[in-house]
Amino acid sequence: MSSPDNQEPFSPRRGYTHKRSEEPPRNTQGKMICKFQSTCANITFERRCEWSKHMDKHDRPYKCLEPGCEKLQGFTYSGGLLRHQREVHKMHGGTKKALYCPEPNCKRNSGSGFTRKENLSEHIRRVHRRTTDGSEFAAQAQNGLDHLEAAAAAAAATEDDGMNTDGTERSSKRKRDDYLNGGDDLNGDFVHEGDAVKRLKGENQELKDRMKQMEDSMRQQQSMLQELLNRQQPIAPTASMVG
């Protein structure tokens, strides 16, 4: 098994490199194999670099040697160690400009912020209970709208029960007879179903309007967040720009 002692000094061009001193084991066909664990028994490698890269997943040879990281599990590749050193120890020029939560009352709106965009997105989803496109909130609002529409439909069905087959309203006497024969109006006042339906329809429309306003607000917040992220995390130079 490899040791962090074989880790070569950091190079700005190549980062960290790790060389294995041991010879890879081979099977009867002469192909390189992994004996680290039984689940790798059927894996073979044609080239030494492939075998070495596979073994890095087991050994995690890229260790941080900074004070306080003695018990930290190593990394499987050089880039992981470099990112850790930049973000935690501010080495190699440190991280890019920090990303902050767009919620004004959030403690992560200032201070150290986030070093990676995906961490900020996860924070917004987990802490503020919404996605950056507002889809979770829209789903909740739609659910409430569905309940209102169902209530309106039920009220409309009740109104239909108070009509004759030709569409005219039944007489007050027949309504009163319905009540005396076991109707639900315990106060003796006959419910005006038409008014209830109008009220529910009005509430339904009001909720639709509010949901549209909130969706517009969510889209605006999404646009502002994306603009903020673009400003805080400039695009990395391409190979052609570097060359």
From TrEMBL:
Region (Disordered), start-end ranges: 1-30, 153-191
Database matches in Gene3D superfamilies: Classic Zinc Finger
UniProtKB keywords: Coiled coil
UniProt GO cellular component terms: nucleus
Domain of life: Eukaryota
InterPro entries for the chain: Zinc_finger_trans_reg, Znf_C2H2_17_1st, Znf_C2H2_17_2nd, Znf_C2H2_type
Residue ranges occupied by any C2H2-type domain in the UniProt entry: 62-89, 99-128
A GO biological-process term: regulation of transcription by RNA polymerase II
The keyword Coiled coil belongs to this UniProt entry's keyword annotation: yes
Keyword Coiled coil tagged: yes
Residue ranges of coiled coil: 197-231
Basic and acidic residues compositional bias, start-end: 167-179
Cited PANTHER family: C2H2-TYPE DOMAIN-CONTAINING PROTEIN, ZINC FINGER PROTEIN
Name of the protein in question: C2H2-type domain-containing protein
